[in-house]
Design goal:
The chain is an all-alpha fold and about 100 residues long. The chain has one domain. Helix content is about 70%, strand content about 0%. α2 runs antiparallel to α3 and α2 runs parallel beside α4 (about 70-95).
């Protein structure tokens, strides 16, 4: 296998699905909430503004897709938003 073929194989991306979009936004929100340890093992401080913005994006997505999602997609988005909102409240309460 050539170096170019190996690079292309390593760069293969998942298909662009609704589920992948929700998981991508979830990961972004969790990172903004400081849920992933840094290289030294410490948890970073939450970026509340970025987390709020990501949650607002997801809420807008929920509103704009209402009635156009499968039951599984709807549940994924609703459950993700509920969990992230709870974590947001925890993070903002802890930062006070």
């Amino acid at each position: 296998m050539s170096e170019a073929d190996a690079s292309a194989a390593a760069r293969e991306l998942p298909p662009p699905t609704f589920e992948f979009l929700v998981w991508s936004l979830r990961l972004q929100a969790e990172a903004a909430l400081g849920m992933y340890p840094e290289a030294d093992g410490d948890l970073p401080q939450a970026d509340v503004d970025l987390a709020r913005h990501t949650l607002e994006l997801m809420a807008m997505l929920e509103e704009k897709t209402r009635g156009n999602l499968t039951l599984e997609e709807k549940r994924l988005l609703e459950n993700t938003l509920t969990e992230l909102r709870f974590r947001f409240v925890q993070a903002t309460g802890a930062s006070r």
